[in-house]
Design a protein that fits this description.
Elements lengths: L3 E3 L10 E4 L5 E2 L2 E4 L4 E7 L9 E2 L2 E2 L2 H19 L4 E6 L2 E7 L4 E6 L7 E2 L5 H15 L5 E6 L9
Parallel strand pairs: 1-12, 2-12
Antiparallel strand pairs: 2-4, 3-7, 5-6, 5-10, 8-9, 9-10, 10-11
Amino acid sequence: MTMFVRVDPERAGPSALGILIPPGRRTLIALRPKTLSWDLLPALWDADPSHAPVFCQFTREEAPAIARKLVQTLEDAVANGVNPLETFGHAARPQLWLRTPHHVWIVCRRIQGEGYRPVVFDSMDEACAAAEGIAAFVWPKSRQEVYFNTQRFEENSI
């Protein structure tokens, strides 16, 4: 059974998961749980704890294929019963990401008019509570609306 049901952005409900690809020759991809104040952005990490993950930008041609793969990866995670959300960093100041085979999708604060910054939680309890909220969108227990936005962006909306 397909858990992620694609809907038109204008028809997406408050619990929809958005995949945003802003215009530009090089662009980012933002995974947006609609009612939460965070977006998840893809990064590459070499698995060395002494190296920080590096955020990715993609060409206009690459981004849609990566977005489609992400939806399939989320479908697979649900089918396999494996929550892809993980904490990382220091236990006293943890961060949160969604791990996929090719990227880690880091939880970043979404503040209109400001650049993205990874969220550093004050405690493991706070990070786990955030993970539960995000899991409802990316590792759902029932059908989840997902929409793609590749063209309709207001000034400073991403």
